[in-house]
């Protein structure tokens, strides 16, 4: 099994996008995601970005006593 919800994707393509079955099966997964409004995610955080965030938001013991 591929792990994809093919029944759900087919249902979305046919009912929500009003595609014909042949049109649905001719799409690439990227095209289908684009049509469904699923934006591709950002690239995973790399070490340089993590280091920049750590400099910007350091873990410190400075806490306001309230």
How is this structure best described in words?
It is a single chain. This protein has a domain at 1-40. Helices cover 53% and strands 0% of the residues. It contains four helices and no strands. The protein has helices spanning 6-16, 21-26, 29-36, 47-56.
In short:
The protein is mostly helical and 66 residues long. The chain has a domain at 1-40.
Key features?
mainly alpha; rod-shaped; 66 residues
Task: Outline the secondary-structure elements.
Blueprint: H1 6-16, H2 21-26, H3 29-36, H4 47-56
Please tally the β strands and state the result: 0
What is the approximate shape? rod-shaped
Helix-residue proportion: 40-55%
Integer average pLDDT: 85
Structural class: mainly alpha
DSSP summary: helix tally:
4
Task: Give a short account of the largest sheet.
Answer: none
N- and C-termini, Cα separation = 55 Å
What percent of residues are in strands?
A: under 5%
What is the element string, with H for helices and E for strands? HHHH
Low-confidence stretches: none
Rg on CA atoms, Å:
21 Å
């Amino acid at each position: 099994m591929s792990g994809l919800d093919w029944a759900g994707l087919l249902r979305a393509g046919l009912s929500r996008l009003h595609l014909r079955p042949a049109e649905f099966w001719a799409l690439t997964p990227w095209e289908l995601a684009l049509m469904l409004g699923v934006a591709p995610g950002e690239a995973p955080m790399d070490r340089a970005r993590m280091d920049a965030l750590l400099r910007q938001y350091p873990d410190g013991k400075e806490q306001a006593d309230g």
